Amino acid sequence: VFEGNTSYAGGGMSVETTSPTLMGCRFEGNMADLGRGGAMYLVSDPWPGLGQSMPVITECEFVANGALWGGAIAADAWFDGLAGPGSEPTIVDCLFSTNMAVRGGCIWTGLGSITTVEDSLFLANDGQWGGALYAEEDSNTIVSNAMFLGNTGDYGGAIHEQNVAGGTYDHCEFTGNAVAYDGGAVFAWNA
Q1: pTM summary value
Q2: How confident is the model at residue 96 (pLDDT cuts 50, 70, 90)?
């Protein structure tokens, strides 16, 4: 259990250029006060030999975490003028409930990251841009058999995509998501 922890980025855990396996963990009430990933911050480094973050996250619960970007998880890459791969988390059979952020109430993915989500539930999360998920900066999201229920935001009640390399949503359910402006379930811009 990771509960009530606070940091600039990765309130509960920061995963930098490594690939742990997490199973059956609970992240609750963690905060990234001024940064990314209320529960977890994942970052890869394009410098030769430093490597990617490619964690496998299975049967975990993310409840009431918060950040500016990615209330629960932020998938990112260091960028110092080098082009390189971003983080590549695989998230399977997880629950995301009542998390909040400005970008991506649950998950923010950017800078070339590839985020895979399978068989997961996103329930009552809030993000100004993307109640559950926000993808930008040439990232890619692959989501299958997920349920997005009762998430809220200003643009994209469940999902907000902007300047992405791609997004695939297979056998997903979007029910009762709401926004103040555009995209009750999904808002895509230049995607």
Answers
A1: 0.95
A2: very high
